[in-house]
Structures are given as C-alpha cells and as structure tokens.
Design brief:
TIM Barrel; 2 domains; 26% helix; Lyase, Ornithine Decarboxylase, Chain A, domain 1; eight-stranded parallel barrel; nine-stranded mixed sheet
C-alpha cells in the first residue's frame, strides 16, 4: 500500500509495479498451460512507460486506431487491428503496421481488402450470447452495430482467414464457455475454413475467484476439437486488474438536506467517466460502501451529477485528507477528458516502496487540444 504522504500532488493515477508484475506472471503462466495467445488491448490501458513489461508477457497488442498503432508498434512484436469502421486517412498506415486486421462488416472488408495484402484478414461476428447486463457495454444487444450475423455468412468470403468475437466485459469463465458454445452453434460451418479465432476481451483471469481451471479446460477442449485454429484473447483489464489507485484530496465538505458530500480535487466526469457510465462506485481505502447515511464523493466539475456512492469511513474524513480510490488503472487514463479545463491527473508509479511521478500535465496540454 502506498504511503499517501509521498504523493505531494493530486489527483494522481498511481500504478503499483509489483501488483502489475504479479498479473503478468499469471498471464504468462496461462499461455504456457493453454494453447492460447494473449494480446494486450491498448483501449483499456495505455501507460507506455510499462509497455516493455507488458510486451514481455503478451504475444502482441491489439489496437483500434492509428494513434494506438503508432504507440504500440515500437514495443510489441506484432500488432492486431480492429475498428468498428476504419478512417480512410488512417488505414494505409495501419495496414503497414498490423499483422492481423479485423473488419466489422462485409462492406468494410470489400472496401479495404486490396489495401492490406500482407495482413491476415478477419471478420467480426456477433456470437449471439449476451453476458453483460449494462446495455452500454453489450455488443450483442438487439440492433448492435458490431459484428456480422450468421445468416449473412453462409460461407467464408475468399481472402478471410480468421473470425473475431467480442461480447464479454469483466466476465466469468462460464461466460467464455457459453460464448464458445454459441459460436460453434451459429458459426460452426465456418470453423473448418479459418486459421485463427480471436475471442476479444473481458476475460478477467487475474480477478480473485476467477475459475482458472474451467478457463483452461474450456479452451483446451475447443483446441482439441479444432486443432488447426489458433486462439487469441485480448483483455484490457486483466493485465492491470487491481494494480493501482487514483489518489485525491478532500478540498471541502458541503451539506444539503441531510446529505454530506466530500468535495474532491478530482472529477468522475473527467477522470473516471466509467463510474458514471457503468455506473459504479469504486472501493475507497479505509471506507465501505453503504446504502444510505454515508458520505458522497463529489467531483470538482460543474456537472450536477459528478458524484458517486455513499461511504462510511473508519476515521472521520476532514479537509486535507488524501483518499485512495481503488482499481483505477483500466479504462480510466484512456478515457480522461479536460472538461471545464480541469487538468489531467498526474500519472505515477510505486516501485520498491518509492513513489515517482511518471508524467504531469499543464496548460499547454489543454491549449494544444483546442484551436
């Protein structure tokens, strides 16, 4: 646990280096035990100061834009690309970088296939199995724009060598099992014709309680049935699950009609939008989430709904205290904004008990984003 006295400036994302190494060791071990290759997804975490460590564990990286491709390519031995739709001005460069390129529709494939002769080409499918309760994160929701349905694929179009399925989000090994059942049911006629199958992200193998034995059994069984298919997984969260915090200070305490809010120097709207999108209240060190009667955590933006939770603290909170919001590495830094001109949070790291600031941001960063 980081000594908050070492953090002189907040808000700050703080990566725990030893916790990251623990996750990477487990992922490397799983790749030794199961015929599957893990790809690191930049969409979930893009702290490139630790890309060398991630590249030593993953078999490659997966990207969804030119910026991600350019960021990943110096570190990872191979880059895989998927985007719901490719920008014309970016595709030529992406095609030079990516070893695998997945298209979201048959139209996209027909449009771009001649522009990527060296890449192994794939098509995203809709596995028709919903494992995510929040519709915002469910690629298999009715009317989804993501992936091709089985009735549109009586045969595999010429030139395609793989399929890509992504329907999970912090899901279980059972959900993985049911996803493969559904893929074999709806797309089994295509499996003899492909050389790889990408099962996307959402495989939270590093979470405590995840059924690793079922995970290994499910994938091993699939590979026995289809030995010619190389399996890929591309989790974003699993690599950095529970590896760090967002440190923030209490600047004020306000009360209104019996509700007490701790006013922070961070913002959920700008620094942690997932908390409002999912929505969820993050765990806080030294506090528990309660149904009512606790403190709200209030963000510093002018958005009325920039607050989360109801917390009961072991020790009475006061102005000047530093709070640690848990598990804030995945889908946080990559989603931050500068709404209200609020500065981006520092990026820091704790290694061998010592805290260091990796990057800090200033007015120049805000000014360069605008004209």
């Amino acid at each position: 646990m980081i000594d908050t006295k070492q953090i002189s400036h907040t808000p700050a994302f703080v990566l725990e280096y030893e916790a990251l190494q623990k996750n990477l060791a487990l992922i490397k071990q799983l790749q030794d035990q199961v015929p599957v290759k893990f790809l690191f997804a930049l969409k979930g975490f893009a702290m490139h100061s630790v890309f060398p460590e991630l590249a030593a564990s993953a078999c490659g990286a997966t990207i969804s834009s030119l910026n991600e491709a350019l960021l990943a390519s110096p570190y990872f031995s191979e880059v895989h690309a998927y985007a719901p739709v490719y920008q014309d001005r970016e595709f030529e460069t992406i095609a030079r970088i990516a070893k695998h390129i997945t298209f979201n529709s048959l139209n996209e494939y027909e449009k771009h296939t001649k522009d990527c002769p060296r890449a192994s080409k794939g098509l995203r499918i809709n596995p028709l199995y919903s494992a995510v309760e929040t519709e915002l994160y469910d690629p298999c929701a009715i009317g989804s724009r993501l992936g091709v349905l089985p009735q549109a694929l009586p045969t595999l179009p010429e030139g395609l060598s793989g399929l890509h399925s992504h329907n999970l989000c912090e899901s279980t090994a059972h959900d993985l099992e049911q996803t493969l059942v559904s893929i074999e049911k709806h797309y089994g006629h295509l499996l003899p014709s492909i050389s790889w199958l990408n099962l996307g992200g959402g495989h939270l193998v590093t979470k405590k309680g995840y059924d690793l034995e079922l995970f290994k059994a499910v994938l091993s069984s699939f590979c026995m049935r289809h030995p010619h298919i190389q399996l890929y997984l591309e989790p974003g969260a699993a690599f950095v699950w529970e590896t760090g915090y967002l440190a923030t200070r209490i600047l004020d305490i306000v009360q209104n009609q019996g509700i007490t809010t701790l006013m922070l120097d961070t913002s959920f709207a700008t620094h942690m939008p997932d908390c409002l999108e999912m929505p969820y209240a993050p765990q806080v060190v030294g506090a528990e989430i309660v149904q009512e009667g606790g403190y709200r955590l209030g963000g510093c933006s002018c958005l009325a709904g920039d607050w989360v939770g109801s917390y009961r603290f072991k020790k009475q909170p006061k102005v000047g205290d530093t709070l640690l919001l848990c598990d804030m590495m995945h889908y946080t830094m990559v989603k931050t904004t500068m709404f209200n001109g609020i500065a981006l949070a520092d990026i820091g790291m704790v290694r061998d008990g010592l805290y260091q600031i990796v990057k800090t941001f200033s007015f120049d960063d805000y000014q360069r984003r605008l004209s």
